[in-house]
Amino acid sequence: MRIGMSQPTEPSDQEHSANTSAEDPASGTAAAALPRDARAAASETPSASETPSASESPGASESPNPMDGGQWRPVRPEELLRKNVPADADPSEPQDNPKLIRQRRQELEVHLRSCPTDQDAFRELAAIYRKEDRPHEAKRVLTEAVRIFPDDMSLLWELEEAKLARSLQQFREVSDLAARLKTTEVEREMKRSREDWAYRRIEVCDARLARDPSLRQLRLVLAEAYIDSDQHDKAIKEIDELVQFDEFSPQAYLLKGKCLLSLGQDVQAMAALRAAGLRRAVVGPLPIRRAALKLLCETAERLGLDLTLEHYQRHLAIVQQDIAKLSAAGKKKHA
């Protein structure tokens, strides 16, 4: 029984039959005898159930209803796992409150033990671990999710992201350590973490390209990973797939020039670097052009090509001036 609502009374048999004959067009009595406009007006008149009773206060129609929200708002499905959450808690608060985030993480871990097919719970738990900068735990959770849902490509993608994040985290940690300590053991660990970061990128990019060959931009990442792992021939093979596409060709030619320099093929390297830094048909971004021209200057100087060196230095000076102008304009805009 709702508080503040008058209780409806049951109509008598006579009242029921009178209402039926007056309101039912199919009965062919009073309603059918009304003119069309009168019948329309009668049909638009609110019924007793739609009209507030006189005993109700003006706000009675807004009385608490479990399905209307407010104080009696029904519990949302995603809240079923939460315990001891204040009724007036801000839904966005757990995103910034470490205590609530930790509580939610623990609840999800317990929930997944009893309900291991809750895909949304896997995703939420992995996202929490990533936010806490614990990609190794996110990797553990998503590995189990992919085992249960092997055909879900979005879960597989998230697992690959977690693997990359974990490898990059280890590489950065060892890099910070190597900056402070100069020991043989640290150098060995630095080499191992660099190789792991390279091979992890190769693994993920190969898998994604196998699933979707149209992701051409991944070939640049793949080529850089091959360069970092000293597999220059494989890097050039990936780069040659991209030089025919204008949006990728400047960076592709720059990477190809670096690979050829590493292989000792200076003439071929300079041709690729000129395509990255001086080509007029497809003008590359200023940072790529600057990097290519710097390598051209270094190579020309090493080979004793004085006139060629002066030519490259003039172009490099122009590019550096353009970069300085853009930088000054950006600072002025944000000032």
TrEMBL record:
Residues 1-22 have a biased composition (Polar residues). InterPro entries: TPR-like_helical_dom_sf, TPR_rpt. Keywords: TPR repeat. It comes from Rhodopirellula maiorica SM1. Coiled coil: none annotated. The keyword Ubl conjugation does not apply. Residues 30-64 have a biased composition (Low complexity). This is Tetratricopeptide repeat protein. Residues 1-76 are annotated as: Disordered. The lineage of its organism: Bacteria, Pseudomonadati, Planctomycetota, Planctomycetia, Pirellulales. The keyword Flavoprotein does not apply. TPR repeats lie at residues 119-152.
